[in-house]
Structures are given as structure tokens and as C-alpha cells.
Amino acid sequence: MFEKRIHIPSAEEILAEQPLPESLRKIKLSRDELAKDVIAGRSEKLLVIVGPCSAHESKPVLDYVRRLGKLNERVKEKLVLVPRIYTNKPRTKGVGYKGMFSQPDPENKEDILRGIRTIRDLHLHAIEESGLSAADEMLYPENYAYVEDLLTYVAVGARSSENQMHRLVSSGIELPVGIKNPMGGSIPVLLNSIYAAQSRQVFKYRDWQVETQGNEYAHAVLRGMVDSYGNDIPNFHYETVMQVYEGYRKSEGEIKNPAIIVDSNHSNSGKRFGQQIRIIEEVMQNRLFDRDFKKIIKGFMIESFLVEGCQKHDLVYGQSITDPCLGWEDTERLLLDIAEKA
Question: What is the mean pLDDT of the chain?
């Protein structure tokens, strides 16, 4: 049984209530083009989606994004930085904290309407104060409409990549959509998801039958896999990347813009956040070894916040309350190193 508690206004009503100003819209559109150019191979820059595992409180996230905006001025000739502002991300088991969208105060009960307003306010301030528009994970496809005017990059998680609704909605998004390999690591399933997202689709979305033309910027994200015993198995190594490259090649052009983003945390690192530095170093070295490898690797996802590690409750300012993250000092050095080697 579903008990109706609070009526949630439509996305159109919320966007009218908290509109994106024209000055910020121009910034976002220019950032969109930079990200698209990387995925399509029109730019040799690397796309780096970097930030906290979950945005649980606005003040430290804005502090982080302001720092990223300043750092962007030093690396913008080589990197396209996109801050992670993930507002729908729950804990792994889906019980307890479910992200800022549902729970704007992680220590209190759900308040979805307040959460929607909070995340829009956060994104608007982030663009204004840093000059960077953000990435978010499309955990719940219907929620995307509440932030669709604010984002430059959309991620589809490993547990969602086989879901038909995620594939369909991705086909109507006019931004880079990174689709992670499923938890079991199947490359054919991953490529099928990308193909579906790049294809024309007709389906019910919210209150409408909609038609999409396909999203040619949908692409692969390698995040590692988990075997039947729960062991993490990395898939950022040369051999796996080239298997994905071969899968793209064998599609004979049916899948456009072959691209891979390497997620340096999750099962690639076994959630040992410090390993992200080593993983990225290996990928950057492999780009020097093989021209095809270099061509298909378009960038990285990095989990990073002001303070390294994680905590169960929001006690330490700027520390993750979900997965452990790199701290700011290591992040800054890592991004400068990537830019130097790109």
C-alpha cells in the first residue's frame, strides 16, 4: 500500500520557481560543448568527473567546487573538469540515507520537496561561484527532469545499466551519458546498453508518450566488477579496455563515438580510495603505449572531497558519509599530474 504524504510539484513548476538565469545557462551550454567534444573525439582533452561520492551538505560541496573552479584555470588547456554533485546516491544496500534529493539533512527524515529545492539551489550556486556545471547520477529516471537544465554530464550506475527505463531516458538526453558496466562486468551487456541509449526510442516518460532521436554521446564507464563471491575485480587494465575497444569496432559503426571513461574508485580500487592515484597513473602510461588505447580513453571519474576517507555521520566538515574519497591536496596534485601527461 502507498500512503500519499506530500504532493510534489511537477518538474515544470519547480523549474519555473527556481529558474536557471540566462547568464548561467550560457556558461552551462559552453561547458556542455566542451564535454561533448571530448566524447566525440573533436577534442584531445581529457574529461574528468571529480568530486564527493555523495553531495550530502551544500556548504562543503560549494567550498570544494570553488577550489575546483580555481584549479580549472590551471588545467583547462588539457582537461575538462566536471564536478560530481551526486544528489540521489543512497548507501549501497538502499536502506538509510538516500541522498540529498530525498534527505536534504542526512541526520533527519526524508523531505523530498525540500530536497529538490536544496539541490537546485546547490547547482545554481555551484555554477555561479565556480564557472563549472556538474555531473549527477541518474539513479531514478523520473527525478532527472528536476535538474535537466543544470547538468553537463549524467552517469548511469552499474546497478542501473541493464534497466530498460534508464536506457530509454538516456536516449533523450542531449549530454554525455556515461553508462557503467554492470556489476557482473559483461562487456556485451554494456555495449547493448550504449546501443539502446544511442537509438531512436518511443516510450512513456512521466505523463507523455515521447519519442527520442538517440544520444550519440552515450558511452562506456569501466568501474570494475564483482564476482559471485563478492570479490572486486578491476577492469581498467590494458586488456579489458582493448576488449571494449574491439566491441565498439565490431559494431561496425552502429555505436557512434567510441569512448571509455575509467572510474578509478569502486571495484577498480576495491574502494581503497588512495589507489585511485596508482590506477590513473597506469592508465596514463598505457595511453603512451598504444595509439588505439589513447584514442578510446576519454577521461576519468575520481571520488574526492575536502577531507580524505569517510565517516558514518556528518561530523567532519567536508568528509564523505558514503564511499571514502581522496582529500583535496592529493586531488589537486593528481589533476595537475594528469594535465601534465595528457
Answer: 95
